[in-house]
Predict the structure.
Amino acid sequence: MNTSSNGYVMGFAVGVCVVISTMLALTANALKPAQEAAKELDRQKNMLIAAGFVAPDELKSAAELRQIFEQRVREAVVDTVDGRVVEGKTAKDLAELNKKAVADAKASGGDLKVAAARYRAFAVGAGADGKPDTYILPISGKGLWSTIKGYMALEGDFNHVRGVTFYEHGETPGLGGECENPAWCAQWKGKTILDEQGHLVGVGVKKGKVDPAVAAEKAHKVDGLSGSTLTSNGITRFVKSDLDAFAKYLTSLRTK
Amino acid sequence: MTSTTTAPAKKSLFGKDELKAIKDPLWDNNPIAFQVLGICSSLAVTTRLDKALVMGIGVTLVTALSNVMISVMRNFIPNKIRIIVQLVVVSGVVIVFDQVLKAYMFDLSKQLSVFVGLIITNCIVMGRLEAYAMGNPPWRSLLDGIGNGLGYLWILAVVGTIREIFGAGKLLGVQVIPQAFYDAGYVNNGLMVLAPGAFILLGIIVWVQRSISGYVEK
């Protein structure tokens, strides 16, 4: 057989591609449930890390993590527009709720952007005595290349940050990707989201190192990641806007 | 009686060529120390031993499987497109490995991030396909793939062990350097966490390996 004829070459190339892509499609389908379960566990684990229930480098089995999560974390859905918990709904209903909110906003001429993220998941972490002592907010937004997802846990005073994690992103490894580095995230601990007058200012990433002599920087800024200004800017922006979105709910909790 | 009947079969499975295929890359013809291939990934993924091991196992599986697949097809692959056919096969195997990691070792797959995908560009894989699998039968190619993968794996494991112990004071995530040392003023070596530390270690390993194996640059 003449293996260098054009027809043979074309046929061979197509054949190889078909066989390999079938193999990939079958694997991807077969592994999908396991991958989704792993992703969900990773999300829960990051909520626990943000809340300080589990240390980032602690070796825990999947079953142990699930157990801690079941015992100490309660997820709820918050209506960010009126600042109230939506009873009887879970994070699974978010897509449907927000779809309805967008449809309503279209009908009434409201802000579509606000409506698209009107309902958000929220979690309360319980202390060892079973009383709520930490509030875990999902934070997410655009970095440089991708949507970064993370959690920010607030102390019971709704002001001090207890912990931050970023668990899903597509930033450059070694540069922006360092946002998931536990050593960097540890700096967020103890920062405050409110200024002295009680206005919401959030916590941002500074370009360069935080100067501890400047009170505002010490309270509301963390050191920048070198080589990742755009990722840092993105994080600063979405942390603020997500805190803004939860502001009404947090205020209602604070005054309770 | 059994020994006489099994002996010839064993000989044909593990003859001189077969043994050479699997043993050579472990020491005399080591892909990292002798051929100096796959250096980038061995710098990047050796900050911790578990990362190094998973990466080593990944490369072993990928070299072994793609060696077999290419070797089976070797007489049918048109010479004009052989490199791209090799690449398609390698990428296919790598993606499968990546998917399996995502399903069953999610944390490690996040840690290894892009480096699993970059196995595709690991010179060892393509090098073995071109140099060995294109001209040898599948069984021997499989052994050659496993041998080269393991040759890569053990060097990574050595570098990973040293870096994790001295860089983080841990081994496989478990603290091995006692707290008393830290209390007495011991600090982790920051150089070991960074790529240059790995580069220096790798250089020392290549030096030691070559002076033992008696290799002389021609």
In short: Residues 40-211 of chain B form one domain. Chain B has twelve helices and two strands. Confidence is low (pLDDT under 50) at residues 1-10 of chain B. The first strand of chain B starts at residue 170 and ends at 171.
